[in-house]
Structures are given as C-alpha cells and as structure tokens.
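Why does residue order matter? Because the sequence determines the fold. Keep that principle in mind as you read this record.
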Amino acid sequence: MNNLIMRLLIIVLISCIINTAFACSMSEPDTLSKVAADSLAFNLLQLEYASYKAENESDKYNALVQKVRLRMRCHQYKEALQEIKRIEGIEKNILQQEFFYIEMRNLFFRHGLYNACIDFIEKDSAVQFSAERSFMKSLCLNMQDRYSDLKDELKAVAIMMKKDTTDIFNKLHHAGMIKKNKSVLMQAILPGLGMIKEGEVGEGLTSFLLNGIFIAAPIALISQKLYLTSFTYGFFPLTKFYPGGIRHTKYLVQINEEEKLKSMRSRNAALLFEFYNAN
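Structure:
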C-alpha cells in the first residue's frame, strides 16, 4: 500500500514539474514580445519628440524618416504609410535633396509591398525618365500580375530607349495562361483522384481506400439490420471525411497554382532584365 502511494506521489510530482516547465516555455515568448513592444514604443516616442522639437524642416524630416524605417522593420506597414503622409507635408525641395521617394520605393520593394512601391515611383517627379526606375516599376507590375499596365510601361520604354517590344510581348506570360484544373471536381466524383492529379499519390490512395471503407462498411452492417451501428461507423465518419478530402484538394490546388505563378513571375523578371539591358 505504501509503495502504491509513493508511486502516485512520484507521478504527481513529475506531472507538476512538466506542467511548470511547459508553462514557463510558453510564457517566455510573451515576456520577450512585451519587452520588444515596450522598446519599440519608447524609440518611437523619442523620435516623435525629436520631430516635435526640430528647429528646422530638415531635422524634422530625419526624425520622421527614422520612424518610418523603424515601423517597416517591425512590419507596421499601415503606420509607416501614415508617417509618410506627414513627411510629404514637408517642403518638396527637402524631399528631393534627401532622395526621399527613391529610399521609400526601395524600402517598400524589399518588403514586397509592390503597389506602394509603384506609388512612390510615380510620385517622384524629380526625374522625367529613368531606365532603373522603369525597370523597378515593371518588376512591381509583374509581381502584382498587372500585365496590361506592364505592357503599357514597356511600350513607353520602347519609345524612350528605341527598343523593339515584339520579342518580349511574345514571351511574357500572364496569370490567365495558367489552366484551371478540375482536381476538386475529380475528387468529388471519385475520392482520391483529385489528390493524385495534384501529385499527392499516397494521400490520394489513402482517401480512396478510407472513403471506400466508410461506404462499404455501413452497407454490410445494414444488410445485418444493424442500422445504428452502420450510421456510427460508416455514414457519420463519411460525412466528415468526404468533405475534408475536397477541402484538402482545394488547398493542394491553391498551393500548386501559387508555385506556378511564382515560376511564371521569375521567368518574366528574367525577360524584363534582358529587355532593359539589351543594347
């Protein structure tokens, strides 16, 4: 009896230690994130005070630009755009002297915010035409699948740089060229077939076998007049598993289409690079 009590106490003690360690490991990221948030808030407050106490427009500009960089580093994109609106209220000649729009377009491009990058390119009126600026805009339009706008940009470049667009227009691909497959419909008609079509052979065969079992089992049980058992072990699991297979197939289709789009955008980017650098 004493041995049994001792074993139970040891089990309870080990369980408490594990739970405490797990709780500590789960709470640590929250503590770290709170420290990071406090540090960010303090830095932003310092920069805001610096911009408020700035003796001239140039000092105010520097403080606000640092706020934008800090917010972008922390992925606070909406707040960064609000700070940029404040900066745009500063004298235009200071923005041009500091190459503000060039810095912002490069910053937003690195973060993958291509529409915002295009806006900054178009706002930069200091230079009427620049091959480098046009190339970045073309890359952004390509990443956003805005192919009609991309063609318009290339036509304008062709006039300015005296280039022929025939070759690149023939080679450029767009999202409409990716064929919409019928994997989801195939999965609905014959469970497993849609998954196999998307390249997941193992998952497809498993789906086919399990759906087959969930259909065959209740039929066999009904023949034995075990109606409740047939519902519990056949039809009820089928109502969960069959729609789940369709949802998973939709997910596979989405992933594969994204991979095709990524590959297509990469090919287009290489074509754009050749076009802009061709003599």
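Confidence is low (pLDDT under 50) at residues 4-18, 20-29.
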